[in-house]
Each structure stands twice: as structure tokens, then as C-alpha cells.
Amino acid sequence: MKKYTIITYGCQMNVHESEKIAGALEERGYVENADETTSDVVVFNTCCIRETAEQKAMGNIGALKQIKKKNKNMVIIVSGCMSQQKGYDKLLKEKFPFIDIIVGTTNQSKIGELLDEYLLKHKKIAQIDNTEKPEIVEVKSIARTSYPHAWVNITYGCNNFCTYCIVPYVRGRERSRNYKDILNDINNLLDQGYKEITLLGQNVNSYGSDLDDGIDFAFLLGEIAKIDRKFRLRFMTSHPKDLNEKILDIMASCPNMSKCIHLPCQAGSSKVLAAMNRRYTKEHYLHLVEMIREKLPECAITTDIMVGFPTETEEDFLDTLDLVEKCRFSSAFTFIYSRRKGTIADKMEQIPYKIKQERISRLIKLQNQITAEISDTYLGKTVEILVDCINNKKSGVVCGRTDDNKLVNVKGDESLIGQFINVKITDAKMSALYGEIVE
Ligand code: 5AD
Ligand code: SF4
């Protein structure tokens, strides 16, 4: 039996991309293997959003050198955002001459065919497609790994060019999938028993802006809302500049729409937001939060926040803390700004690392306190969760998520996976809730 391992870095877009790569390998008779050192094919699906993501991938690729020396037939493939960066095919070849196939982001769907070619000719392949707006490839064989949850791409690429971000350079211009293909995917997944669908895109709520038929994200949600079956619909990521009343109204009117919005604010200072090219102000962001609270009172808002962007002063940072206090996010991903070559912010005057570290600790402290306070509000409440896995650390315990995406632990076994159950919350920790099943 031929074996494969895929090592994935970065966001959910990459996790889903890896499911497509797995589909291509399984079509060719390979089976999944957790231990990459004993695999016939090892794929590194990489990320480059921050320097740490790159360092991690580089370290793990380097670690395979000795294994490959002993097992010369092992095929090593490096794909994704890191390899798509300008000059990286050359850099990877020089640094790791034992890599067999290098592909970027937009030609990952060709990995199966490139592997066939490599096995036939035994000639190394480096193929990076630099087309600005490559064709969307509709991948049919996807080896999904996250039942009862499934991802569905709605857009690829990004047109926003936030000044700190490498994504528009490595994922090309925004391309929207045809809404009929998306609806088809969702219906097929529901037929197969999936219970939660997440629409994926770098900026989901600008869906359709590249199409010329007037179709937009609100239209797409409206069509999905017509599906008369019980499931949960999530989407990520939303950009504050493209979130509007129409979208919120559809979310409010449809019980299948998860009451949770991931809305990255990045910073609280309007001056910094302008330098980031985010195209909204602190006031506009607060207005959006107010609108969400009014139309969807039960809705959780989560966010991404960055500290230490070039030019960020202490006063700017205090604006971020103020925004965090006012918005009361259910949770936040917090990041230290990381320089990315080729972006506008890389050429701006940088902030000392010590200041960045000090700011992120203050930010995390504040957000943790808010997250804990919000978690406490669930005590005694009965919530519906979708059970999605067994708790690997505690035997006889399963995990699930509420509609607003809170993690809940409850006694139970594997048979509950994929079921919606009601749980009374008996204990609340910052990152997870604990409860008992109620009939
Ligand atoms: N440095 C730090 N964080 C970044 N992000 C994007 N680019 C960078 C960077 N250069 C963060 C943003 C984004 C999330 C996916 O990653 O907060 O929303
Ligand atoms: Fe990067 Fe901004 Fe596009 Fe998000 S919207 S991927 S942060 S450029």
C-alpha cells in the first residue's frame, strides 16, 4: 500500500486545499499515514502570512533531508503560499535540493498529474503559475477530514492589498465561483450527512464583485437560506468595508445561519487603519458592531488584531485597547506585525520588537478578561451544540460547538458525533464550557 502524509500550515483555506490534494492522492491509490518518515509521498502545504509560519515549514522540510537519504524513493512536494512567493522556487531548490516537486497556490490542483509525471520521468519539477487571474478549477475528489463539518470555497484570491499582507501577492486576484456550483456542493454535502458548512474566502462578503451578473454575497446567502434542512452555515473571513445591512438581515431571518461573525478589525486607530489600507475607520467599525448587536443580539463577534504595525504609537495602541473594550469580542486572534517582503508596510519605519511584545501582552490580558466574562454568561443556560469530535485528553468526553462557536465539553461517546444536542452549561473556563446533556 502506497502511503502519503500532508503537513498543512496556516489558515482554513489551506486545510481545505490539503483535502483536495489528499483527494488527488487517494484517487491514485495512496492511503493516509500520520508518520511522514514512512510515507511514499510527503506534501508540505505551506503558509507565509507571518515569518514564523515560514520558519516552521522550512524547519520541517529540512528535517526530512536525512530520511530522504535513506529512502530515496520518497517523493517530497512543497506547495502553497510560501512557494508562490517571488523567487522562492529558486530559494527552495537551493536550500533543499532534495525537494522533488514545487508548486504554488493556483496550480495545487495539478499535484496529482505532476506526481504521475515525476514518477514516470524522475525529473524534478518546479511549476509556479504567475497568472494574475487564473481559471477556477472545480475539484471533484476531495478527501474531507472534518466530518460533520465541511468547507466550501466561494472565492479565491484577494484584491484588497492591505499594506501589511502578502496574500494578494501569493493568491492572485479575487475570483468568485458560480453560485450554482456552490449551492450544488452544499446540497451534495448535506446529502452525505454533513451538518455544518463554512463558506471560505479571503473576503467572503465581496463575493460576486468580479462577476457581471449583479450577484453578491447577500444573494448567495439568500439562496442558501432557502435550503429547507437543518444544518449550520458559517462563513469566513468578512471584511468590515463589505459588511452590510442586507447580509445581517438575511442572517437574522434564517435559523440555519450561525450567529457568529468573524470580523477582523486589525487595529483601533483610524490613522493606523488608513496606513494599513483597510478602508474603514474606528467609528465605522464601531457602527458595524452596533448594527450587528441590534439586528442579531445573540451574535458572537470574533476578530483578528495586530499590534506593532509601522508608525503605531502608544496613543494608537490605546485606541486598539479602547476598541476591544467597546466591542467585547467573544474571542480574538492576536498577532505581532511581521514584515513581509514586497508589501508596502515592509518599506515603512518599523517599531522595536520589545514594544510590540509589550503591546501584545497588554492586548491579550484585556481580551482574556473579556473572553472569560463572556464565557461566564453561559453558566446555567441550555445551548444547542453540534458534537464534532471526541475529547482526546479526557476519556468519555466529546466536544461540540454552540451556534455562536463556543467550545463545549460534555460526557458522551463517538456515536454523538454529527448530532445536535442540548446541553446545560455547568462550568465555564475561558476557552471552553462544560455541561450536561438535557433531553
Ligand atoms: N503580520 C502579522 N499578522 C498578519 N496578518 C496578516 N498579515 C500579517 C502580517 N504581516 C494577520 C491579520 C489577518 C490574519 C489572517 O493574519 O490579522 O486578519
Ligand atoms: Fe490580506 Fe487584507 Fe486580503 Fe485579508 S483582506 S487577505 S488581510 S490583503
Distance between the termini: 46 Å
Question: What is the number of helical segments per DSSP (H or I, 4+ residues)?
Answer: 14
Stretches where pLDDT is under 50 for at least 5 consecutive residues are none
User: What is the tally of beta strands?
Assistant: 19
User: Could you report the average pLDDT, rounded to the nearest whole number?
Assistant: 97
Structural class: alpha/beta
Approximate strand percentage: 15-25%
Percent of residues in helical segments?
25-40%
Strand arrangement, major sheet: 2-1-3-4-5-6
Named once each, the bound ligands are: 5'-deoxyadenosine, iron/sulfur cluster
Tertiary shape: globular
What characterizes the major β-sheet?
Answer: 6 strands, parallel
Q: Radius of gyration over alpha carbons?
A: 22 Å
